[in-house]
Amino acid sequence: MWDSETELAGGRDYGNGVLTTSKHGVKTKGFELMDRSWYVAADIPSDLLVQIGDVKFHLHKYPLLSRSEKINRLIYESRDTDLNKIVLDDLPGGPEAFELAAKFCYGIAVDLEPANISGLRCAAEYLEMTEDLEEGNLIFKTEAFLSYVVLSSWRDSILVLKSCEKLSPWAENLQIVRRCSESIAWKACANPKGIKWAYTGKPPKVSSPKWNNMNDLSPSRSQPVPPDWWFEDVSLLRIDHFVRVITAIKVKGMRFELIGAAIMHYAEKWLPGLIKDGAGSVDGGGNSSNSNSGSSSSWKAGLHIIVAGTKDDPPSVQAKDQRMIIESLISIIPPQKDSVSCSFLLRLLRMAILLKVGSALVTELEKHVGMQLEQATLEDLLIPSYNKSETLYDVDLVQRLLEYFLVQEQTESSSPSRQSFRDAHMYEGTQKGTNPNAKMKVAKLVDSYLTEVARDWNLSPTKFRVLAEALPESARTWDDGVYRAVDSYLKAHPMLSEHERKRLCRVIDCQKLSMEACMHAAQNERLPLRVVVQVLFSEQVKISNAIANSSRKEAGEMHYQPMIPNRKTLLEGAPQSFQEGWTAAIEDINTLKFELESIKTKYLELQNDMEILQVQFNKMKNKKQASPWATGWKKLSKFTKTVENHDIGPQVPATGDQTRRTPRRWRNSIS
């Protein structure tokens, strides 16, 4: 029994969890419930009615006034001297907490349990049941039970934190949530050696860890404790309390792999499937989204996947709860690489896009995916386009993920001094330097993705080509995957122009095609002829180099220069299937050459006809008669020149008296 006299005289015993007081003033046999109303079994009739919601308490003023400062103030500061009714609808904990507080005021024994201690503590704070009115009041009693009983037990800390879900903001202001979160974090990070472990979330026959019972002789030696023992218990908490616990665990230095695994366990519990099969609904046999209400019966329930509606539909309650969970989980994912699986991140990203999570958090999640994109699978990467895009799959999203991956690869290969503090923290624990295998894995993944999305009729050639050319050339050893994707796109888009087909085929490196791909390309009617010729030429070079290489090995030459033999030798050394394809290609090329020669001949004939016509035109132009006036002027000019030459004759040299030459006289024209 907890009473003020025994506490002052002989110490305090908090283990029994029973509260009593001997100073109550009214003798009573207990409380009786009749039709949503509580009555005190006493000889004195009640003089005060306290109503909380639809529950009424018929009590006496004196026991309450001696313990509660708030009720004192409500009664004595009111203008109504005969006040006999008080309404306390905003009392935290509701009628259940007030019932326990009223019993404490009457001196009735109250059993304190983890399920009711938080509500009773908040109700005592609300009623202002402090030590100023009476020593050993309810605030002191409940605080002592929290500190010495609840916080020393793993199971009790979980249950109390779970019961705080309906007591906001009182539980936050009284630091109950913070103390329970730190207690859970300390126990989760502590050394389990010498502790007898069991689990709250397991079947009832297994109890919680007995932190205050250290008398057992190290049972953990015979039964090792798994590192994820605390996942199930912590996953029972509401998302905001789960975030508080994980944050406290991070501060205490737990490994980021365990933190990521705990986050994944929580997401699988509260977000079943994470829309693994698209925007579908999950089996409705479980409980609904009221699983966060705080009742113990709803702990095993999760938030079910909603059915994707139209863009203008208002978000439902379930959608809001899911969005809050996703946003909270994104914010606490450890920044280190491989803290959570890439498949989990992509499924979480798909759900975040569907539920329209904030763009900043979506970008942060995309960066996490880009850090470990080489671990992704094609199934997880095929995220539908939930926005107004016409394409079936979100190709722009994959383009961004690929960009983040390349940026991360470049950051790892650059000097550490150029990295920011956040980047250095983000990549802490990862390998320094680029991983060539990662780029190759991503290249194969992108080729498979392109092959899958190539069937989409609305996918433009530009988007397809940009995504195919995003990776550097060194990422692909063979271009068979790119060729397969291009062939699928050409097959699904037969109306492409010749120019678009040529531009699309530029993403293929013909020198990186295998023998099977070359054979398929040589007979592929969808490819432009220029590409087919390039494929055949590159394969010819490969065969010649292979033959020369084998000859070098036989001759034992140390230095080797590739030598291209004649065509007959090449064909004799090639497989029969390749010879048949080569023969068909040669026939097509000869046909095209014949047509080209015919066109050249016709062009020369037309050019010759043009020259003949030009000569005939010039002759006709020269035969044209000049005008009479022009002919007369020409004849007159000739006659004038003849007369002048006849009259002047040879000149006699000048004498000494004649120093100047006489001016020439011109005959007037007769025009």
TrEMBL record:
Residues 642-671 are annotated as: Disordered. Belongs to the NPH3 family. Keywords: Coiled coil, Ubl conjugation pathway. It comes from the Eukaryota. Residues 228-542 form the NPH3 domain. One of its GO terms (biological process) is protein ubiquitination. This is Root phototropism protein 3. Residues 589-623 form a coiled coil. PANTHER family: OS12G0117600 PROTEIN (PTHR32370). Residues 661-671 have a biased composition (Basic residues).
